[in-house]
Design a protein that fits this description.
Layout lengths: L10 H4 L7 H13 L5 H7 L7 E4 L16 E4 L1 H7 L19
Antiparallel strand pairs: 1-2
The protein binds zinc ion (2 copies).
One zinc ion binds next to strand 1.
Length: 104
């Protein structure tokens, strides 16, 4: 059975209080507004329009906390795209490719 965590605000990504702060909520709204509540990745990669419901950090917050509220580091994404840019979230649930020594 595959269990997928529902993570809209990246809370599961970090698990700390950042995503509950008023600063983040306010920033999140302004990023969604900037991107017209449209998924940037769908528009640029898939040439389709989809409503964004997630604001994603391009540089991960745990590695670049100084970019946490930097507009250039934030993009609006739909749920599917957000999953696609975070393969690590599902690593534990997917079979890892086995290395075959003969195919080096
Ligand atoms: Zn998308
Ligand atoms: Zn993210």
């Amino acid at each position: 059975m595959v269990f997928r965590r529902h993570c809209t605000d990246e809370i599961a990504e970090l698990g700390d209080g950042f995503y509950h702060t008023p600063e983040w909520r306010h920033k999140r709204e302004s990023i969604l507004k900037r991107d017209h509540h449209e998924c940037v990745r769908c528009r640029e990669v898939h040439h389709r329009l989809r409503q964004a419901n997630t604001v994603h950090h391009i540089e991960h917050l745990d590695e670049h906390p100084e970019l946490a509220l930097n507009d250039d580091n934030l993009v609006s994404l739909c749920f599917d795209c957000h999953n696609e840019v975070h393969p690590e979230k599902f690593e534990a649930f997917e079979r890892k490719p086995k290395y075959d020594d003969e195919k080096w």
